[in-house]
């Protein structure tokens, strides 16, 4: 835990230093016309609050349904929210409530799992200590112990590189290449005995070879939090929350958040098809629907590329999205 907090402190300090350096390089905030972001010049603080809290909902809707795209979202392409009774405030409330609920459940579940893992680990260690002391308290018979150890030695073709011999005189455990300091301290044995490790197969029931495979911790809750952060954090500088920017909505700022959104879709697809052998019909229906969605989105991408052939087709594609821009 100490090393974890040290890493968090180091990353936070480095992030703040990079942010300060970035702000020093840019100097004064760049000036932009009021038509580029009309909400930022609105005198009512409630209007700015309602509208800017709705803009992330609108951007998320563009990720889900990217069929109303425009190269320019300036002026009043998105009408400002001037009253609390606007239906879009309900969309914002539901959106932030869902994100908060999902984040809190994932975080609390992960903390509970980590607590259970620690409790199991400490319980296992305590059982090992009790088992070890109960074994050491038994009267020691060297001849019987050696015969019992020979009976559990694996065959030569399956044997480990470590060679078992009779136990040491100090701790009465099996000798291998390295000797642990814990064993010497527990058994009041301060001398190095053949530089060997203390391993007692009789105390553990049977011999288990050492597993050198690295343990990779995988948790859907951690993946959910990571992908959500990957989608939210890159969008924060363009959300008009920290400072005002020269646009209302810009599709270019959704490139990096769309990566986190795709990761979330992959996580959801993997969760729904986890037991595909048990629910083959449901998994097949889901995979067919996913394939159809990918084909439709690919076709929409190709169609959108045709709008960028020249300036005239690009402006015509945005007339129904932003009529005031067409009048200008």
From TrEMBL:
The keyword Transmembrane applies. GO terms for biological process: protein O-linked glycosylation via mannose. GO terms for molecular function: mannosyltransferase activity. The keyword Transmembrane applies. One of its GO terms (cellular component) is endoplasmic reticulum membrane. The chain crosses the membrane at residues 49-67, 222-247, 253-273, 285-302. Residues 30-99 form the DUF1736 domain. Keywords: Membrane, Repeat, TPR repeat, Transmembrane, Transmembrane helix. PANTHER family: PROTEIN O-MANNOSYL-TRANSFERASE TMTC2 (PTHR44216:SF3). This is DUF1736 domain-containing protein. It comes from Euphydryas editha (Edith's checkerspot).
């Amino acid at each position: 835990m100490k090393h974890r907090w040290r890493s968090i402190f180091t990353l936070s300090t480095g992030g703040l230093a990079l942010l300060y350096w970035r702000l020093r390089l840019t100097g004064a905030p760049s000036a932009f016309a009021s038509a580029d972001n009309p909400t930022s010049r609105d005198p009512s603080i409630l209007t700015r609050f309602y509208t800017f809290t709705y803009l992330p909902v609108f951007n998320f809707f563009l990720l889900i349904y990217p069929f109303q795209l425009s190269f320019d979202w300036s002026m009043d392409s998105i009408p400002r929210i001037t009253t609390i009774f606007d239906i879009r405030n309900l969309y914002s409330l539901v959106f932030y409530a869902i994100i908060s609920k999902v984040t809190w459940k994932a975080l609390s579940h992960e903390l509970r799992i980590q607590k259970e893992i620690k409790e199991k680990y400490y319980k296992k260690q305590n059982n090992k200590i009790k088992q070890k002391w109960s074994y050491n308290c038994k009267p020691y018979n060297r001849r019987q112990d050696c015969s019992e150890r020979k009976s559990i030695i694996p065959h030569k073709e399956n044997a480990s590189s470590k060679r078992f011999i009779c136990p040491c005189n100090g701790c009465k455990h099996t000798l291998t290449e390295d000797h642990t300091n814990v064993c010497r301290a527990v058994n009041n044995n301060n001398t190095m005995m053949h530089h060997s490790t203390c391993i007692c197969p009789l105390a553990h029931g049977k011999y288990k070879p050492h597993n050198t495979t690295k343990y990779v911790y995988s948790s859907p809750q951690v993946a959910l939090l990571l992908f959500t952060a990957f989608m939210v954090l890159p969008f924060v500088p363009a959300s008009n929350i920290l400072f005002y920017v020269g646009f209302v909505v810009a599709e270019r700022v959704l490139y990096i958040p769309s990566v986190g959104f795709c990761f979330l879709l992959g996580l959801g697809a993997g969760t729904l098809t986890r037991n595909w052998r048990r629910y083959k019909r449901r998994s097949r229906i889901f995979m067919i629907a996913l394939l159809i969605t990918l084909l439709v989105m690919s076709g929409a991408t190709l169609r959108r590329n045709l709008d960028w052939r020249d300036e005239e087709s690009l402006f015509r594609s945005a007339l129904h999205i932003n009529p005031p821009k067409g009048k200008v």
